[in-house]
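Data availability (excerpt). All sequences and predicted token strings are deposited with the supplementary files. A representative entry, arginase, is shown inline so that the format can be inspected without opening the archive.
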Amino acid sequence: MKNLGRFTHYMQKIITDNVPLSLLEKGQNRVIDASLTLIRERARLKGELLRALGGCVASSSLLGVPVGHNSSFLQGPAFAPPRIREAIWCGSTNSTTETGKELKDPRVLTDVGDVPVQEIRDCGVDDDRLMNTITDSVKLVMDEAPLRPLVLGGDHSISFPVVRAVAEKLGGPVDVLHLDAHPDIYQSFEGNKYSHASSFARIMEGGYARRLLQVGLRSITKEGHEQGKKFGVEQFEMQTFSRDRDLLENLKLGEGAKGVYISIDVDCLDPAFAPGVSHIEPGGLSFRDVLNILHNLQGDVVAADVVEFNPQRDTVDGMTAMVAAKLVRELAAKMSK
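Structure token line:
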């Protein structure tokens, strides 16, 4: 992280040393265009393959978005996408999901690689343009039917540009199921409107979600409650989970909306199941609680993300990486058809 800080300082010095702004912007545009071209061509290749195979209405496609700098505590989630991929294909388990779908079948899961976030930021691109680039990348995946984006974070700030892309591409708001220890709905956190603690405020004020259900909450401030009421969020706290279990394990979402978006912050789980997170919050969901919610959900899942896995905090020989990978595997099965 010290090297990243040095580079940011270096870019600031370049800007203040009277380097022509037009020259800097030209370089930034070239890097962003190259990044989008990379995603576009990978998505096109996978889309052509699936259309040639036939018999597939929807297939999940992995897109890594390694953002960590919008975290309020640790930046380790930026390193998560490759670790999750490694765990998905780890030889310690097979590639069949609990619902019987086979991940090696491209009609269930493909991969279009990562948005090169650090390379983009190294050019001095600000967060407004970075968020736009993430949105554009997701749209490029969705351009190639039957691909549907299954996004690997990164911190939770990525959910805003991804949900925005999905809603804009589909032409209307989606229903969002958000599993998390925190509501991430601060209007602005520590002066950062793109903080990982503010992503759902951006989603709701943009009108990208018709309904937002937040499940697993157990660290919520007065502002979190007030923001939830302001935006009409359905907040389910862990202290009442036993009472709410039947409802949450039999959800029916997406009717009257453009589909269902699922966002899973790994810290929704009790740290006994997933210690490798930046914000350890005891008293969370069990892994089977989460799977029951996912498996029983009725609705057309058009996109999803798994965020906030921090490899630098993974304490038990890749345990949390395997947990994140299992979530991705079951989401892939849920999304594909």
